[in-house]
Specification:
heterotrimer; A mainly alpha (115); B mainly alpha (88); C mainly alpha (149); A: 115 residues; mainly alpha; Helix Hairpins; 0% strand; C: 149 residues
Chain lengths: 115, 88, 149
């Protein structure tokens, strides 16, 4: 249990995002919830690639003895972060347009299909 | 009623997530790292780059980066389209 | 915005642009790369939008869009450069020409003239991210300004 504490923390972050998505009614807060889930998943991916006592996988002035952390999860997390930025920008644009149309960000009030 | 349903499903999902996180392999020793060891060993002879992460992003997995650039381009185009459409 | 914000922006904008360029240029030697450096430089653009207002920069929207497309096309073209072997093959690495120095195995101080197509791809992606994020921030600000009056 205590050895897996970083993974548990990542999953708590994901659970907080799920809580936000389920309970909150504001569109901007829903976007924040999706961002929380993204952060949790990115942190989980980076934590999966950690090696005990590892140093960054870069040769420039590297100490020779220590092991290196795995580089592939870091590279794919970079991809994931950029895609997260793109989807967040799209969601916020939709939220802005909905606010201009309806005058509110409450999901209960914009649920009707009028206009 | 639906609020209680949401709470129950949240606690079920969060419990499953944390139960799964406890059951993952111990933090800090990946069991199989042959591919990453290859990348670490050969990023200097093959790509001539000191940074293994950059070597993976732009050389070994260039297709991923191409798709990522496409996603970014699509998102910017979508934002431009949505925010330009309603202007009087 | 007030004169304090404008003055601080005038001081910080060159610093952020130069630091972004440094992070992009040294992407194959130190932590960083095209995406990170582009995001750093785009923060400078966002600061300009906040301080001086978006309507002053409204004419530069087409420039940002075309710069982003140019970055994407340059990235794909650099991928096609290695088509003699495979797509995305690094033909310039170790060839002796542009960015073509070979590196010895093991920890070293780092040589900027290495890694083949990687620095060029870093620059292409850096310009793409800089222009893309700047265009998104500018579009949001323009939309807000046009509707609040």
């Amino acid at each position: 249990m205590i050895g897996n504490l970083p993974f548990v923390v990542c999953m708590i972050l994901v659970a907080l995002g799920l809580w936000t998505l389920l309970i909150k009614r504001n569109l901007v807060k829903l976007v924040i919830g999706v961002g929380l889930i993204e952060s949790g998943v990115n942190l989980f991916l980076v934590a999966l690639g950690y090696v005990r006592g590892g140093i960054p996988p870069i040769y420039t002035y590297a100490p020779t003895t220590a092991p290196w952390v795995l580089p592939t999860p870091q590279a794919l997390t970079l991809t994931s972060i950029v895609i997260g930025v793109a989807t967040t920008a799209l969601m916020l644009a939709f939220a802005v347009v909905i606010y201009r149309h309806k005058g509110t960000l409450d999901t209960r009030k914009i649920r009707d299909l009028r206009g | 009623m639906s609020r209680w349903l949401a709470l129950a499903s949240f606690f079920l999902g969060a419990g499953l997530l944390i139960f799964g996180a406890v059951g993952v392999r111990p933090f800090g020793d990946p069991p199989r790292a042959e591919m990453d060891a290859y990348f670490n060993r050969y990023s200097q002879p093959e790509v001539a780059a000191n940074n293994a992460v950059t070597a993976i992003v732009f050389d070994y997995r260039g297709y991923d980066t191409l798709g990522e650039a496409t996603v970014l381009f699509t998102a910017v185009s979508g934002v431009a389209l949505i925010l330009r459409r309603l202007r009087k | 915005m007030t004169v304090v914000v404008r003055t601080i922006t005038r001081i910080l904008l060159p610093i952020s642009l130069v630091f972004g360029g440094y992070v992009i240029m040294h992407g194959h030697l130190t932590p960083g790369g095209g995406f990170q450096g582009g995001a750093v430089a785009a923060s400078g653009l966002a600061m300009v939008v906040v301080a001086f207002g978006a309507s002053r920069l409204a004419g530069r929207k087409g420039l940002l869009s075309s710069l982003e497309s140019l970055g994407g096309v340059a990235f794909a073209a650099l991928g096609f450069l290695g088509l003699g072997l495979t797509f995305f093959a690094n033909v310039l690495a170790g060839a002796g020409g542009l960015f073509g120095n070979s590196v010895p195995y093991g920890p070293n101080p780092g040589d900027l003239n290495t890694a083949g197509t990687l620095p060029l791809m870093n620059w292409a992606v850096g310009f793409k991210v800089l222009a893309g994020l700047g265009a998104v921030v500018l579009l949001f600000a323009l939309f807000g300004e046009n509707h609040d009056r």
